[in-house]
Hints:
By secondary structure, the protein is mainly alpha-helical.
Amino acid sequence: MLTKSQSFTKRVFDLVLSIVLLPLLIVPILLLIIIATIDTKQFGLFFQERVGQHAKLFHIFKIRTLKNERHKLGHLDASATKFGRFLRQSKLDELPQLFNVLIGDMSFIGPRPDIRGFADELVGDDRKILTVKPGITGEATLKYKDEEAILSSQKNPEQYNRTIIWVDKVEINKKYVESWSFCVDLKLILKSIYRK
């Protein structure tokens, strides 16, 4: 687990980088919100409850990509508008999470924050994942960048997610927490920027 000094270093880096990036990205974020509002006929900024550090709940910010209809795990892309699919594939829908980083709910690098029923139900050694703030990106996020496509090809996406993908993500995120360093975060940021 991260020491107090490591956690402090990580938080200072998050704070400085978010302060640098937000003035540069605030106009694109606002434009995407406006376009998404027109596209989905709902307010373009989407709020959803997620499990954060120490299993505390917070609201994650995203650009809205889905139509006003019910959707199932593994079928999100089918519910997304054409513009929404572009946002999801390019990850531009996650730009508003810079505000989550700024206010301290999230970090640039860490385990992706899940809805209730996953991280909050971890037990034993697996709960060390909850000692760090969830991230915009991370090793598990990069490995499963095509997660929606993987799930959509499964007969039972929910079961596959819980028994295969989620189990693997837990192991990846545990290793991240156990071997954290500032250099690891920098490398993951670069991998995220240049991922194919």
